[in-house]
Amino acid sequence: MTTDTTHTATETADATRATVQKFLALRLAGDIEGLTALFADEVDWMLAENPVVPWIRPRSTAAECAAQAAELAEHTVAEDARASVDTILVDGVDAVLMGHLSGTVRATGKSFAGPFALRLSVEDGRITRHHLYENSVSIAAACTP
């Protein structure tokens, strides 16, 4: 027997998963306008500060969060950019994506690589939390001449 609570939890998880899939498709397409619409007006953004990495900075608005994708593309070599998502875990409004990323910094020609974990939260079909955990040492080294 399914209870209303179980049904609602399943619907919430399904909605979260659909938003995460949309986020991934928009990132892959480089659709900044679509990403801006997908992020909430105010976002709990967390990415370890790294002053030598030009695309890593504090962000909080939908436009700032969406712009991170364009800034990353601007500073890295497109042909060398790789990201793979190995796992997506969804629990209600929260999702965690795990995978690997790599790239080459345009200004230095140096490469970076490593695992990542991305925690997203979704409310009313919009991303309200974006916490990224990545190999910031490798990225900083690639950005340093």
Architecture overview:
The protein has helices at residues 4-29, 32-38, 62-75, 136-143; strands at 39-47, 82-91, 94-104, 111-123, 126-134. With 145 residues, the protein is an alpha+beta fold. The chain has a five-stranded mixed beta sheet. Helix 2 packs antiparallel against helix 3 (62-75). It is elongated. The termini are far apart. The model has no long low-confidence stretch (mean pLDDT 93).
Task: Please sum up the structure shown.
This protein is of the alpha+beta class and 145 residues long. It is 38% helix and 36% strand.
State the total count of DSSP E strands.
5
Strand order of the largest sheet: 1-5-4-3-2
Low-confidence stretches: none
Secondary-structure-derived class: alpha+beta
- Straight-line N-to-C gap: 62 Å
Reading the helices and strands in chain order gives HHEHEEEEH
Beta-strand proportion: 35-45%
Average pLDDT for all residues: 93
Largest sheet: 5 strands, mixed
The rough form would be described as: elongated
SSE inventory with pairings:
Layout: H1 4-29, H2 32-38, E1 39-47, H3 62-75, E2 82-91, E3 94-104, E4 111-123, E5 126-134, H4 136-143
Parallel strand pairs: 1-5
Antiparallel strand pairs: 2-3, 3-4, 4-5
Fill in the keyword field for this structure.
145 residues; alpha+beta; 4 helices; 36% strand
